[in-house]
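Issue: copy button drops trailing tokens. Both records pasted manually instead:
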Amino acid sequence: MPTRIAISSAVPTQPAQAPSGAGKPARATKISFKAQMLQAREDAIVQAVNRLLAEKGFDLMTVDEVAAEVGIAKASLYKHFSSKEDLAAAAMVRVLRQAQAFLASLSVSSTPLERLMAVARWMLQEQLAGEMPSLPSQNSSLRANLMANKAYLDGLMQVSDQIGGWIEAAQIDGSLSPKVPALVVLYTLYARACDPVPGFLKAGGQHSDEVIIELVLATCFDGLRTS
């Protein structure tokens, strides 16, 4: 896990002088049509990457496929993202932002365990819907790219801190076993995002997505023992 770095800002000894325009209403910055079109294209690229990563995984996805999915030339795609690793990083940042929004939507009246189960359920729903990117755990160039991506690291740290706090709270109130290190529980929850079991069960055609999710949640949180 990345290490948090505390950044302290110097406090000025003298109050700053207000700018000459202070007190006047700020003008809204108007985004040009060209900038809007470029942003829309970039959003479409990231969405396509997200789908292809969920469907095929990083190793099998190609830049040519991404360009074809969006309907642009590969040269145009490279104006937004310089490599396949950059594309994957952008997809991960998108998922982390969605995760942040989901975590923020959870009721403050829910117990820590209920929130953790909701997180795992959301991950499984995204995976079964084909919206969860699949990245290899062993890929040096991809890992280096992700570790150099500030938006990815900041998002991952924020999500991990929040979920980690709920894990520790659940262990304190006795709803999760304190014998298992909190970091192991965190990784176990993250593993639900790439768990192959839901896909196998869905391919079998015997269970609905909701039943599959409940079965996986039961094995994750309740275990397999009868006691």
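Record 2 (pasted manually too):
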Amino acid sequence: MARLPQRVVCLSTETVEVLYALGEQDRIAGISGYTLRPPQARKEKPKVFAFTSGDMNKILAVRPDLVLSFSDLQGDIARDLVKAGVQVHAFNMRSVEDILAMVETVGRLVGAAGKALDLVAALERRIAEARLAGDAIVARAGRRPRVFFEEWGEPLISGVRWASELIAVAGGEDIFPERAVMHAARDRIVADPAEVLARQPDIVIGSWCGRHFRPEQVAARPGWDALPAVRDGQLHEIKSAVILTPGPVAIEEGLPALLKIFDAWAAKRA
């Protein structure tokens, strides 16, 4: 259909992932330099922007008829592209439902609504299967593990909403659920590490954007040797590219990673 966008620029990795999954990758005219999934996208598609910085002229040079952006962090470039006459759709996923809705919307935008619904149904099946596995972990352990999801170490930042929701699906309990609903990372800063100590997490999961998680640094924090997670060696990393990307990868790879960690914790309690 001639009305559908033929030259799509994706300024974040998750919409690239979805378009490839839908078989609509030929429409992609440009990607973010931070795109990781699928790996072939980095070889096949021109990199026209970073994430929050870059030259808008590189985007315009590929003559996009649609640009897909993500969150307020890309608000300035989205505004400038609109001013330049480019069609822009800005996503702002914060929950698992938002991720599934993004998949459906991308499908509709490129005329692949049916394939998008099939992909969403497959992701929902994965979630349902993971929930059953999580319930089994809880039954075996006698309770849910208390989990501190650490999105950043200095300052301490607790996990975004979809990570908190996936923890619950996998049978865990986020120790900062009230922070998870906050959209901005600055609103999820744990200013006083004593708050973590007070909530006694059984497991710490680190997912530091752009940096390797350092469990030895976590264990060395003042007073943290009293945490069950430190005492029992339950300091784990899940790569940010896996669980902090608001796309199918969080469900397809992030959720199984959580289940593996929780299952090992439950086995030690048995």
